[in-house]
Amino acid sequence: MERKALIRTALDGLGRSYAPYSHFHVSAALLCRDGKVYTGNNIENAAYSPGICAERCAFAKAVSEGEREFEAIVICGGPDGKAGDYCPPCGVCRQVMREFCKPDSFCIILAKSAEEYREYTLAQLLPESFGPDHLGGV
Ligand code: THU
């Protein structure tokens, strides 16, 4: 899938965030190697800690459907659903990506719009990381 189409998919999903506590809406679109795209949103909770980030929501949907190979993820969001600034993935989400993605090739796209975005590899955002290979692989 083309970059801009993946970005538009993420931007289109911003309205589906459930963020009544932070009012910070995040949306993700995860591209699998087979071409399928899984979206995700942050889902907050009155007890706070059960809340989940948009990126992990997308990975949970994809992995639970049998996907294991991933190319790229677009992340966007901001206060009240306005993607006015870049929204980098939290540390926990970076580690979840590390479980399933190749650090040197998995592409993390932070988008404000289909025209304004930045691209990183997972290795850039999570250097010297610990992953499945340290435990003998899976
Ligand atoms: N959030 C995400 O969904 N992804 C991130 O990587 C950063 C933070 C969400 C969690 C919470 O619902 C809100 O943004 C404010 O932290």
TrEMBL record:
A UniProt-annotated Pfam family: dCMP_cyt_deam_1
Domain of life assignment: Bacteria
EC supergroup of this enzyme: hydrolase
Binding residues annotated for substrate, in chain numbering: N42, I43, E44, N45, A46, A47, Y48
UniProt-listed Enzyme Commission number(s): 3.5.4.5
GO process annotations (BP): nucleobase-containing small molecule metabolic process; pyrimidine-containing compound metabolic process
The keyword Transferase is assigned to this record: no
Source species: [Clostridium] clostridioforme CAG:132
Protein name from the UniProt record: Cytidine deaminase
Cellular component, GO annotation: cytosol
